[in-house]
User: What shape does this take?
Amino acid sequence: MDKYILAIDQGTTSTRAIIFDQESNLIAIAQKELTMLYPHPGWVEQSANELWASVVSVISEVLAKANLKAGNVAAIGITNQRETTILWEKQSGLPIDHAIVWQSKQSDHYVQKLKEQGLEGWIQKKSGLRLDPYFSASKIRFLLDKHHLQKEAEEGKILFGTVDSFLVWKLTGGKCHISDVSNASRTMLMNLETLDYDDELLELWQIPRAMLPKICDTSAVYGYSDPSLFGEPIAIGAVAGDQQAALFGQTCFEKGMIKNTYGTGCFLLMNTKEQIIHSQNGLISSVGWKIKEEVDYVLEGSVFVAGAAVQWLRDGLKIIDDAAQSEVKATSIKSSEGVYVVPAFSGLGAPYWKPQVKGAIFGMNRGTKQAHLIRATLEALAYQTYDVVAAMQRDSGISLERLQVDGGASRNRFLMQFQSDILNCVVERSFISETTALGAAYLAGLAVGYWKDKEAIRANFKVGASYVPQMSEEERKESLAGWEKAIRSAMYFESC
Assistant: This one.
């Protein structure tokens, strides 16, 4: 009987199930959109029950599409939106509230209080993370206080999990309450060195161990799906945060390798192998994965607005009809002619961390046309990526030779060529676009021997497109100097 790997890619806006074969070919895919809830300004929530129902639905659908049964699946790999927080009753398995999504800000007052106490540096040294409501700890605290559940949490009657934990719990019929190191490292409760929950951080947030999932390897058989779900039990062989899964799917296994996912924002990760780097340049440190005794750490920088800037051109300014048109318009002129767009619509992320900065346009004159604005917006994605890569190089001392890319905007040939020019390195887009799901599949396959080792996985990797620098050094320096001036001007404007 032929065997396959099934990957669940549970993202912020949709849930997908994808089946891969041993040569990394995509056999079938099923997708279900999710409802986003915005109860107050800055709050972002989802129904945890809807998340779970979507997973069951897409697994059943993808098996039907591929004409396969559960017995044909060697293992399930799960990758997920990372910091999103769910609390549920241990006995019933019912969520106590909506899931609080990673970008939600309702727990910010807890964070600000700790910042006032001067604890930011201490927390970052232990956890690798900046003190921000982005991460799970403050979200847990918010839900416990909101529902007055401290006592029940201490007794282990209320459980916490990021999305991976909740899905494994539901898939196994409540038999497994686990998370992996990549997700646990995003909670602000795990010590990067011990790979266990830190007692002092737990005490700081008043979060009891009894409610927390067991921290496990990224690639391991945690349990089996309940036979009532899909007819036969299926091994659950991997759990990984989405960005770490994408890094693995890009086969960035060596120290210094970097991937960039161009989605709504940009997420850049550098593999630092066994070295924990405490950033001095506005980045954060997490665990990439743990496979048996091997632990790979990562440096990460997030750009808040990337693909969202192209959506702004389409939906806000209405100067393009679709994302693909941005490439056509950008290449209709020879340059942006000194126009710079700073798309700080949600503030500036790494390495600046200036949430109050607003978007800005500089360098326009009477001859500026739509095409200049479009081109400058695409160029801004490359400049923002350059800023994060430069910070990574300063922190690590490693020079970038190649950037691995994925995500929707990585198919924009103008952008990728400009990215190569500005970074002065090769940019490679993988042949398989579903690198996040593929990473989860690889990790699950390793757990059950579907792939022998990482070398067998690397042999499957195919380059879809490659871009080499074509810009002169003089032009590159001039372009970067203009960008730096635009960024500083945007920050200065907000400070006035």
